[in-house]
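Bit of a strange request maybe. I'm writing a small parser for C-alpha cell strings and I need a real example to test against, not something I typed by hand. Could someone generate the C-alpha cells for this chain?
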Amino acid sequence: MSSPTTVFHGGTVIISAENETTTSAIAFSNGTVVAHGDDAVALIDQPGTETIDLAGGTLVPALGDGHAHPLLGGLEELGPEIRNHDSVDGILASVAEWKAAHPEAEWIVGGSYDATLEPGGLFDAKRLDEVTGDTPTILRSFDYHTAWVNSAALRAGGITSESADPHLGRIVRREDGTPLGTLQEAAANNFLADVAPAFTTEQKLGAIESATRGYAEQGMTWIQDAWVEASAAGCPDLEIYLAAVRAGRLHTRVNIAFRAEPSNWREQLDIVIALRERVQNEGADRLSANTIKFFMDGVIESHTAALTEPYADRPEDRGLPNWTYAELEAATLAFDAAEFQLHIHAIGDESNRLALTALENVNATNPERERAHVIAHVSLLNPADTPRFAAAGVVANFEPYWAQCDAIMRDLTIPHIGHDRAGWQYSIGSLQRSGATVTFGSDWPVTTVDWRPAFATAVTRKADLQGDSWLPEERVSAAEALAAYTSGIARQALTADRGTLAIGQTADAAWLSADPLSVEPETIPEISVQGTWLAGDRTF
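Reply from user aminoacidic:
Good idea to test on real output. This should exercise your parser:
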C-alpha cells in the first residue's frame, strides 16, 4: 500500500508533457497528486512522510503502451531465442541448441525471426528440418502474421499440395504446388490454435507476470492487450488475467481487446458484453475489458495489407482484406452501441480509409457520447485522409519504432508498395499537426518492448538512430513523443484522471535518470528508469 504522503524533490518534475509544464517537487498522498513545488516540500516534515531524492533525475507521468501482446511476448521466453539473429544460420543454431537442451520436447515453438533474411520473407521447411528432424516446429516471424514450419509440422497439420488455402490465409507453395514451409495470416494463426500444442495455465500465468513486471521496469502502468480471443467455447486468456489479478501477479493495469470475428461477430456480441461485466466485477483496479479489436488486413511485407491501388511488384494484387465494408459498418455500429471502444488494425491505405469511414458513420448514426475509438498502426495513409482523424475524434495509435528506413523498409516494404507511396508511411508529424490524438505503442513482441529507442525514432526518424532522417517532415518533438505515451494514452485508456501529474490526478509516475525533453534525442535510449509508481504504490 502507498504511504500517506510521498514527496519527490531534488530534480525536475514534468507535470504535463503536452503543455511542457514542470515543477521542482511533488507530493503524492492516498494515490493522488496533492502538491507541487514549495507546497510539496513543506510536507516533508509531516510524520510518516516518505521522501525521495530524485538525485538530479526527472519524474514524469507514467507511460503506457497503446498496442501490445503481453501474453505472446512473455511466452516467447519459453522457446528458442531467434529474435536477435541476423542470419538464417544463426536462427538454426539457436533452434538446434534449444532442442539439445530440451530433448523431451514434443514440439518446438518460438518467435520472432527476421523476415528479411530470405527473399520475399519466404522460408523453406527443409532448412528447419536440418536441425529439428522429426520434431514438429513452428516459428513466428517478427510481424506475427507469418510462420515458418518444418516438414514434421506440415505433416502434423495435414498440409499437403492438395490442401486449400484457409479463409483469409495463404499456404505459400513451391512451383510444383507443394507447401514451402511459410504460412501467412489465417494459415499461420489457425495452425497455432488448432495444431501446435497449447501452453499450460502456469506457463501462461508466468508469462503475464513476467511481461507486466517488465513493463513496470520500463516506467509503464497501463497496457493495451490488443488481441484476446473470445467465443462461446470460452476465453482462456481472460481466465489467465483474472488468475493473475487474484494472485497479485499483475504489475500494471491491462485493458483487454476482444477480437471480433468477421464470420460470427453477431454471436460474439452478447458473449463479450458478459465477459466485460465479469471483468468489471473481478478485475479490481488493474484489469478492464472495454475494447473490441478488428483486423482490417494483414501486413505489407507479405502482400496481405489492403491497398487502394495494386502492389508495385504484384500488379494483380491489392492485398487480403478481412472485412467487407458492409459487415464492418454493421459490426462497428453494434459494438459501439454496446459502448465498447473500437480498436482497428489498419496497415494499408485502403484499410485506413474504410476504417475511418466506418468510424465516421458510427459518430453520425449512434447516439452522441464520449468516444475514443482507435485506428492502430496507420502504416500507409493517403494524405487526403489525414484530416479525418481529428474531425472524427479518432485516436491514431502508432508504433514509432517502425518509422525508420531499416532493412525491412528498404528490402520488403518499399519494393512492395513502390516509391510513389513510400512517403505516405507513419505520418506521425502530419497527424499531430492536424490536431488528432496520437498515441504510441510497441506491438511487442513484434518489435522491442523498450519505449526509449521507439521514442528516439519518433523524434529522429533515423534507422538505428544513425545517418539521415527518413521522411523528416514526419518527425515530432520530444514533448510530443512523451505526450503520445502519457496524456495521449490516458485518452485512449478512457481515463480523465491520468496522463499528467497535475494536482488531483492519479499518482502514476516514472523516475528517469535524465529529462527526455532536454537531452539529445539519440541518447534517450541511455536513460535509465529508477522507479515506477501506480496510484502511489511503487511497482518498480
